[in-house]
User: Fold this.
Amino acid sequence: MTNHTNTRICSLEAGLSSKQKDKIKIVRHQVEIALARTYGNRLSPIIVENLLSQVILNSSVLAHLEEVAVDEIPTNSKGWDSLAKELAEQDELACRNLDFSNSSLKAELRAQAVAAVQPSKRIAMARAGTLDTYLDECVIGELERRGRQ
Assistant:
């Protein structure tokens, strides 16, 4: 988060009435739940904290706080999940964190797939040039089974 962004957040929060502070607290709680539901533990806590502080910069949240429009914030879990995805996709650090988490998971699944193949079969597949393709298919299959890709 840049200094400019941090200054904007602090300025907006400083100008909130007590009623608006209660509203932003509720919004941040819903976004935190949606981030957990959408990304599980793939986002580090510091990234989640950063996204929660930046939620006040979202135009629909600002409209809700200022009571400009009633329909601006989500009313169901799908809507909150969509807002959480939007926030994460717009944040470069969150995208990098997710990419790293996915890379770590893929490496872990690949290691498990290698360990599951008998050494003699693994050597034969490596000599035939099919080991990497097989391992990639195992990783993709496991990711699909888990609902992540």
